[in-house]
Specification:
The chain is α/β, with parallel strands linked by helices. The chain has nine helices and eight strands. It has a single domain, classed as Rossmann fold. 41% of the residues are buried. Bound molecules: adenosine-5'-triphosphate and ligand L45E5XJ5. Belongs to the cytidylate kinase family. Type 1 subfamily. It is found in: Cytoplasm.
Length: 206
C-alpha cells in the first residue's frame, strides 16, 4: 500500500505524514529531503545550481541515502548525516532551481520507486508523477499567512519574510504542485494537526 500526501510548501506534509505513518505502523518518505540534499551538496561544493550536469556528476560521486523511518526521515552522504542542515534558509532559497532539472527529478524518483511498500510518501508530485497508482491520495493546502505563522515558530525569520519566501517557492514549484485528480484536498487552515491526521486515517481505514 502507498499513501501519498502532497501539498504546497509548509502545509504540514511531513508532520502529517509522520503522524499517519506512526498510526499505521509503516514508514513515511519525505521526497523533499532528497531535493534538499542535492541542493546542500551543490551549495557546499560551490556548484552552479543551474547546471544539472555538474550537480548530477557531484551526486554520483557522493551518493546520498534516505532513511525513511516513521519517527522521522534521515539523510546521509556516506557516514555524514545531512538531516539537520537541510532546512536552512539558504537551502530553501536554492532548492526549487535544483528541483526544476528533469535529471535531478529522475535521480530522486529512481530512489523513491526502489523503496519497499508499504509507506506514506510526501512531496509535490507523489500522487501525480511518481506513484500515480497509489491507493490513497491527499493534498494539503492553507493560506500563505497561516503557513508562515506556523513556520515562524521554527525559524528565526519574520512572518512577512517567511510568507514571501513561501509564495515565491510555490511559484517556482508550480510545475509539480497540482493535486492528483483522485486526491482528497484538505484546507488545513482551520484544522489542528491531529484533526488532519485523523481525517486522513479515517479515509485510509474506510
Ligand atoms: N494543522 C496544523 N495546525 C497547526 N500547525 C501545523 C499544522 N500542520 C502543520 N503544522 C506546523 O506547521 C509547520 C510546518 O509543517 P511541516 O514542516 O510538516 O510542513 P511541510 O509541508 O512538510 O513543509 P516543507 O514543505 O517546507 O517541507 C510545523 O511547525 C508543523 O508543526
Ligand atoms: N516531490 C517533490 C518534493 C519536493 N520538491 C522540491 O523540493 C523542495 C523542498 O521540498 P519540501 O517538501 O521539503 O518543502 C520544494 O520546494 C520543491 O522545489 C519537488 O519538486 N518535488
Amino acid at each position: 500500500m502507498i499513501v501519498t500526501i502532497d501539498g504546497v510548501a509548509a502545509s504540514g506534509k511531513s508532520s502529517v505524514s509522520g503522524g499517519v505513518a506512526r498510526a499505521l505502523g509503516i514508514p513515511y518518505v519525505s521526497s523533499g529531503l532528497l531535493y534538499r540534499a542535492a541542493t546542500l551538496l551543490g551549495l557546499d561544493a560551490g556548484l552552479d545550481l543551474g547546471d544539472p550536469g555538474a550537480l548530477l556528476a557531484h551526486l554520483s560521486s557522493h551518493p546520498v541515502r534516505l532513511e525513511p523511518l516513521a519517527e522521522g526521515n534521515r539523510v546521509w552522504r556516506a557516514d555524514r548525516e545531512l538531516t539537520d542542515d537541510l532546512h536552512s534558509t539558504r537551502v530553501d532559497k536554492g532548492v526549487s532551481v535544483v528541483a526544476a532539472h528533469p535529471q535531478v527529478r529522475a535521480w530522486v524518483d529512481d530512489q523513491l520507486r526502489a523503496l519497499p511498500e508499504p509507506f506514506v510518501a510526501e512531496g509535490r508530485d507523489m500522487g501525480t508523477a511518481v506513484f500515480p497508482h497509489a491507493q490513497h491520495k491527499f493534498y494539503l493546502t492553507a493560506s500563505a499567512r497561516i503557513r508562515a505563522e506556523r513556520r515562524a515558530k521554527e525559524r528565526p525569520d519574520d512572518i512577512p519574510d517567511i510568507e514571501a519566501a513561501l509564495i515565491r517557492r510555490d511559484e517556482l514549484d508550480a510545475n509539480q504542485i497540482a493535486p492528483a485528480a483522485d486526491a482528497q484536498v484538505l484546507d488545513t487552515g482551520p484544522m489542528t494537526l491531529d484533526e488532519v491526521i485523523t481525517t486522513i486515517l479515517r479515509a485510509v481505514r474506510a
